[in-house]
From TrEMBL:
Gene3D superfamilies: Winged helix-like DNA-binding domain superfamily/Winged helix DNA-binding domain. It holds the Pfam family GntR. SUPFAM superfamilies: Winged helix' DNA-binding domain. SMART domains: HTH_GNTR (SM00345). CDD domains: WHTH_GntR. This is GntR family transcriptional regulator. The keyword rRNA processing does not apply. It comes from the Bacteria.
Length: 128
């Protein structure tokens, strides 16, 4: 797994780790059941504090993307479900992004095209 963080970014380092792991899952770079580096190891590789990596991992665990135990370490969860909590959070985030797009003059067809292109970039099939 190859992660990179940008210390100069306004995005917190733990959020960069979180986001890159989700992108890795969606893009196929990470697979269910795959073991991730230990917190200490990843912190050393990224040259960040261990608490930063732990915060990113803990957020991913809370969201159901990662599981961990003492014997097998931290690994990608085997199954992901779009439960009611996830769907509500998705709707909230989409509402904000759509509002920002509307304010900036992006028309609905253009926005839909952007969403479809991003979805397909992760190997998603378009449904009729």
């Amino acid at each position: 797994m190859l992660l990179r963080v940008d210390a100069a970014s306004t995005v917190p380092l733990y959020q960069q780790i979180h986001d890159q792991i989700i992108l890795g899952l969606a893009g196929g770079g990470l697979r269910p059941g795959e073991t991730l580096p230990a917190v200490r190891q990843l912190a050393d590789e990224l040259n960040v504090n261990m608490l930063t990596v732990a915060k990113g991992y803990n957020l991913l665990k809370a969201e159901g993307y990662l599981v961990s135990d003492r014997r097998q370490g931290t690994r990608v969860a085997a199954d992901f479900q779009a439960d009611a909590v996830f769907q509500q959070e998705l709707a909230t985030q989409l509402r904000l992004l759509i509002a920002a797009a509307k304010i900036r003059g992006i028309a609905a067809p253009e926005l839909q095209q952007m969403i479809t292109a991003q979805y397909q970039a992760f190997g998603g099939k378009q449904h009729a």
